[in-house]
Structure formats: structure tokens, C-alpha cells
Write a structure and sequence with these properties.
alpha/beta, six-stranded parallel beta sheet, 351 residues, Rossmann fold
Length: 351
Amino acid sequence: MNMTLDWIQHPCRSIDHQAAAAAQARQDQLTKPRGSLGRLEEMAIRLAGMQGTDAPTPDPVRILQFVSDHGVATEGVSCFPREVTLQMLHNIARGGAAVSVMAEAIDAVMEIFDLGIATDPGPVAGVRSERLGAGTGNIAREPAMTDDQLARALDIGRTAVERAVDEGARLLICGEMGIGNTTPATALACALLDLEPSILTGPGTGLDSQGVSRKAQVIAAALELHARSEHGPLELLRRLGGFDIAASTGAFIRAAQLGLPILVDGFIISSAALVATRINPGVRDWMLFSHGSAEPGHRHMMEALDADPYLHLRLRLGEATGGAALVPLLRMACVVHRKMATFDEAGVSEA
């Protein structure tokens, strides 16, 4: 593998356990029974440890939206044609997509990347052109990426995070859009978790049972071609992943190295989280998990990551929408942590 990837093995920043302990102590002194705000308390404590402060906050929020096509879409694994990826790029950039509206609602800065749509859109206002090719290879018949494409995709994620940190971001959310991308995400999860496609394959954009069966067969063919015991997570990512998954993987690794909290979105982005933690286990400490996807394979990825997502809203859109949906609750948790009175301040008797 290209030596320029040495950076992915660099150690991640350590969590400030003293700050987390101080946050826990403060929560225990607030005017409520201990633990009565449940996972809102957990959110504030986790962010305090990540940020090393007694005043944690998710703001400013940075969303990285990675858009790309997937060669495997030609195998009929989606309800929608590949042209929709290009159309959705324009929709996201114009502000008409769900994530665009949600990003505006939570006052997040969103960077949109064309990593390799099948048809080159040319310059698009509000979109960074970082094209790695006209989509990935068809994983049922060939590797998704070359070594160089993988290295570049990881580096795009890395530099995007460095830019976000330089601009003051305190929470990272990665999103993706690309017709067919639940197929490489599922293939990666199958390979990394050693599970059959029949267990993890779901409807994606809304396939019926026959479509899901066809998709599982395509994934089985990809695994037969690429999944070998000697292949580590990086090589599996190259063979089975996508530009969007690889860029998100690079972003997660760099975020953990720089101490930027990560809010993991749904099914596809969770496959990137799984790869990132297999490459560099320290990344896991920097992850919060936004929601449980309606895709059946997501539960297995969450178990492998020892993750308990905060929301269960039956979301299955992707695009970072699940991550964006959690941000108001994170803000609420942090405001309560900072502003709620202690027993001493309020003159209230403790239990």
C-alpha cells in the first residue's frame, strides 16, 4: 500500500478523563436525582471528556457531504438510476435536500464534495470538485479502487477535517450520497464481521424482497472475489468500498488524531466508522452514534462497535440527516449541564 498512508496509523488524541470525571461530579450535584436525565447526562459528560472542558458544546458543527457513484449500481441493486446521484448533488448544493434544510436549521457549515459522479458535472456552485474517477469499479467484478484512488480518498477526508479544525469546528458529521452505496457498505460489513449477505442485506432505497435477494447475490459475488483472510481492513476498503466511504474513513481517523468529536450517521457512514476503528482502534473513543438505521445490518455494526445509538426514528436516508437530527439534543444536554443549578446554589436538600 502507498507509503503516503503512514498517517492513518498515527496515535489518536487521548480523552481527558479528568474533565469527564469533573463533568460527572457536576451532574451528580445538579438539582435532580442522580442519573435522572439519562442519556442527556451521558452526552454532556462524553463531550466534556473529548473537549477537555467544563463547558462542552457541539458548536460549531461541520458536515462533510461526500457524493460519488458506485459501479455496482449497474447490477440493479437500487430502485433509482445512477443519474439520480448527479441530480441530488445539484439538489443538495441548491439547498433542496433534506440534509441541506437540516444543516441550515442547526446552523452547521456543510462542505459538499464531488468525489466521482459518473457524469462530470463541471463547476457547481458550493461544491468542491475532488474527482477520483467516474465512480468506483463494479465490486461484483473488479476492485472498487486503485491504490492511488484509495490513498487520495482518505487524504481528501483528512484535509477536510484539518480545514474544519482550523476554522473552529467542534463536532464532525460525515454524510454521503451515491446511488447503490448501501451495497458496498454491506459488503464491507460482511467482510469485516464475517457475516453472510443474507443477514446484513437490506432494502436500501426501497427494494422489494426479490430486489433484496438480488442485492445479496451481488454482494456474495463481491465477497467471493475480494474477501480473503489475508486482506486487512484497508485492502478490504479498497476492494469493496466507495469513494464516499473511504473519504469518511480518512476524516474519522484524522478527527480522532486532532481531538475533534465525531457524530456517526447511519448505515453507510457506520461502515466507514467500522473500517476506521479496525485500522486505528483509538478512533472509537471519539465517536458518538446518532441513530439506529432502519437497515437490518446496522444493528450488527453497532454491536461490533459497542455502540448504543441515541435516536431510533426509523431513518434510512443517509446524507448525515441522522447526525443532524441529534444536534439539538446535544445542545440541550450541554446547556443543561452548564446552566442547571446545583443543590448548594439552589438551596435544595440532597437525597
